[in-house]
Input
Amino acid sequence: MTPPSFPDRYGHDVLSSAPPAHHRRRPAATEVPVARDLVVEDASTGFCGAVVRLEKSPGGVLVELEDGRGRRRSFPLGPGFLIDGKPVVLVPPRRAATRPVAKRSASGSVYVEGARARTARASRIWVEGRHDAELVQKVWGHDLRIEGVVVEMLDGADNLPERVQDFAPGPGRRLGILVDHLVAGSKETRLAQQAMAVPGARGNVLVLGHPYVDVWQAVRPARVGLEQWPHVPKGQDIKVGTLRALGWPHAGQADIAEGWQRILSTVRSYADVEPSLSGRIEELIDFVTAPEG
Output
């Protein structure tokens, strides 16, 4: 005789491996950086609103939410929030990665760290004297080393046409020449015109200049505490007259050399040099480094 069957009052076997529904694993909460206007819900209270701000409190950081009616409430930053019904952990906003600031040379160009000087080009830049060369090297020296450009001194412009002829300029062998006091009617302007008439000079030689009698005046006068450089009467040595006006020693060549070094030491970058000089130097560098053709 078959025994009677009875309904299972307790459902499945409580010792079976499948856990009851109320013991199943909850979905893992994901971290979400706080951002203004991010809409979240506080899981414990059901308050839903947009993030307004973060504020510090004795117990930690609070996030303030504002609902659609303008009501605001603050909650501890961290777990216990929902976004679209899914659990999240609110974390502080991630800071944007800061891009490294490029180091600049005195000329304003990007400084190439650890770069070796390039082999010298056949092209050259000529300046009139030592002080011109020292100023150019201090501000544009890094650029010149990278480009392989040598700066040479003329020791005056009186023999400029002959020097250009001896150099024999041509393609790949360019000359950029900086001349003092290159103004209409000056001796320097006449010499520059003669230099440009030398065979091979056209297209391969560029003569530029500044309006100053001496390169000292191309340094901004404010660097030595002046509003403008003193006027030195024609016929007087401009360097001696400048040092006298500054109240610096000016008795001999040693005083002139020391005075120039004091002026040069105040130059930190191209910003301390008049644009009428710095612009010409940039043009000369571009000219002698331009690719052929």
User: Anything to note?
Assistant: The domain at 124-219+267-289 is CATH 3.40.50 (Rossmann fold).
